[in-house]
Amino acid sequence: MRELSPKQFSILEFIRSFVEEHDYPPTIRQIQEACEISSTSVVDYNLRALEKLGYIHRDRDVSRGIELVDKRPRVVAIPIIGTIAAGQPIPVPSADTWQQYDSETVHVPPDKVGKREHVYALRVKGESMIDALVNDGDIVVMQKAETAQDGEMVAAWLKDEQEATLKRFYHEGDRVRLQPANRTMAPIYTDAANIQVQGKVIHISRDNP
Amino acid sequence: MRELSPKQFSILEFIRSFVEEHDYPPTIRQIQEACEISSTSVVDYNLRALEKLGYIHRDRDVSRGIELVDKRPRVVAIPIIGTIAAGQPIPVPSADTWQQYDSETVHVPPDKVGKREHVYALRVKGESMIDALVNDGDIVVMQKAETAQDGEMVAAWLKDEQEATLKRFYHEGDRVRLQPANRTMAPIYTDAANIQVQGKVIHISRDNP
DNA sequence: TCAGTGACCGAACTTTTGTTCTTTTAGAAC
DNA sequence: GTTCTAAAAGAACAAAAGTTCGGTCACTGA
């Protein structure tokens, strides 16, 4: 990729900052003014060059039809529907959770959730989940699920024990092995009928104040 | 805030999806077509309503001058400058780390890093940091720092032991107490001269495949 | 019943904005 | 010196896009 001329660099930087501020791209004449260029045709000329060099993408005949190629994706907002603690039933998302706009949310980069649907988040309460390497205050991002594949980390409810837990899930015949994330700790074996998978853990986020 | 009419809701949703796709807002006529509205003046009418209700902000006389008020922020890209493991010196960012564009990066929501500068990330290697509730493969987001306040979580290098560690930091006279995040585990006490703070841990991110 | 109002329609109008075309300039190549 | 090309100017043009305005329709409250 060839070097940018000072003018092209200045145009690119202006587009970046303009988009950052206004959330829509500048017009050719705004670029012209900001970069102190004498003619709109010069802007057009350099935009064509930038497009050929791969820095931008233009939608022709469309006002402000400039897209930055290396733009950063936007975060996605995930509803925090409640807290998860050992001795407490795990909140499950209801059918209308995904429409509601008023719940507390956590922002995560889109690559964390991919194309998954029915994603929600729980705030960890207490220190009972440290064998899952999850601390008080951590946010666990979950995908709604009733079943799991071997090796997936799930939030599960143990009926007999009346207890919520975060563990890796493995089928073993009629039974299920729940393996802590911390490998130095022993797994739990229980009857398959005794556990209720509430969701798969897809991401954990911790802020360290 | 009053209820949205179906038409207004549909307009708002269209603007959202359009911006998501094109990175610039639609024109009034594009809204008109997409929402099957008979006249541009009706679009204008409803955009005024949406503006009054606080859902959007308009820049008048400007094509595509529509800003969503609750727009999602973009992620920030943080360079992953290396790995952190118990028996290995902790990589430190160099002066030009922040200019380089070619390193591997991790995306985090802007609210995680705030206005902090000199933020970088390390990938955790091995399971030696489980007392910090950090697992193999986790990404720790750090802020460059040579010193720390009491209670802050730091990445530190223990000179005598030739060991890297993630702990909460407390001054205690000439000595320093390093407290594991897992409160059931015992702290380490060491001479203040023996530890070298390499950075503050501001965020931890774990993907659960 | 009648004025008032919110929502909508159509069309015309004006401004904004991207595009094109002709020229000019400055170097580089021959 | 001539030729060629990248870069830039300036002006004119045409399409895109925001705005305005007179009028309709349904509904509401006096």
Can you characterise this structure?
- Two copies of one chain form a homodimer.
- With 209 residues, the first copy, chain A, is of the alpha+beta class.
- In chain A, strands 4-3-5-6-11-7-8-9-10 form a nine-stranded mixed beta sheet.
- The radius of gyration of chain A is 25 Å and the shape is elongated.
- In chain A, α1 (6-22) packs across α3 (40-53) and α2 (28-34) packs across α3 (40-53).
- In chain A, β7 (153-158) and β8 (163-172) form a beta hairpin.
- The mean pLDDT of chain A is 90.
- Chain A contains four helices and eleven strands; from the N terminus they run αααββββαβββββββ.
- Chain A folds into two domains: 6-68, Winged helix-like DNA-binding domain superfamily/Winged helix DNA-binding domain (Arc Repressor Mutant, subunit A, Orthogonal Bundle), CATH 1.10.10; 76-205, Ribbon (Umud Fragment, subunit A).
- Chains A and B meet through β2, α4 and β11 of A and α1, β2, α4 and β11 of B.
- β11 (195-207) of chain A pairs antiparallel with β11 (195-207) of chain B, so a sheet runs across the interface.
- The first copy, chain A, binds a DNA duplex (30 and 30 nucleotides) through residues 5, 7, 27-29, 37-42, 44-46, 60-65.
Structure at a glance:
Two copies of one chain form a homodimer. Chain A is an alpha+beta fold and 209 residues long.
Q: Describe the main β-sheet of chain A briefly.
A: 9 strands, mixed
Low-confidence stretches of chain A: none
Strand content of chain A: 25-35%
CATH architecture of the largest domain in chain A: Ribbon
What is the count of helical runs of chain A? 4
**Oligomeric state of shown chains:** homodimer
Write out the strand line-up for the largest beta sheet of chain A, numbering strands in chain order.
Answer: 4-3-5-6-11-7-8-9-10
Along the chain, the helix and strand elements of chain A come as: HHHEEEEHEEEEEEE
The CATH topology label of the largest domain in chain A is Umud Fragment, subunit A
CATH superfamily of the largest domain in chain A: Umud Fragment, subunit A
